[in-house]
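Moderator note: this is an archived Q&A kept for reference. The question asked for a predicted structure of one protein chain; the sequence and the answer are reproduced below.
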Amino acid sequence: MPNFRRVFVDNSYVFITVLLNNRKRTLLTDYIDNLRGAFKQAQSVVDFEIYAISIMPEHFHVILKPLEINEYPKMISLIKRAFTKGLPQELRVELAKEISQSKINKHESGVWHRRFYEKTLTSQEELNHITDYVHYNPVKHGLVQRAVDWEYSSFRKFVRDGFYQEDWCDFSENVDYG
């Protein structure tokens, strides 16, 4: 079994990406209230601040700052578990049919990719860069033409707080000079 090493730097932000097992599914936006509830449930157990977030149909990116840095893996586990339990039973049964024997042997659900990806952010420049990445992600994936139009992200909060202009990364009027 792999032994993944995680970096735990006190008082730092962590950029995390979590994927669904089946990237063709749209569970995260289809069951957005369930996902929001899962985050709240995790926050009742592990103290963390969500700095920025963007939820796509089949994955999400979040920048968070946990009070205890070594607890973010537990937080992700709690979110995954609460979200899965909140799905309709018939859907969970259907998803269980999509998983490998390895996941069955490990009693995994079929909802989530086994691992999550994380990066500890070590500077303000890196935090700003990754925040841009998080908010641009729905545009990158072709879900919207403007970051402000994606309702499942913290972009509008950042606009209200003066971090971005509302038309940041607005490519809706690009002209093709080709």
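Archived answer notes: Helices lie at 27-30, 32-45, 72-86, 89-96, 101-105, 124-140, 155-160.
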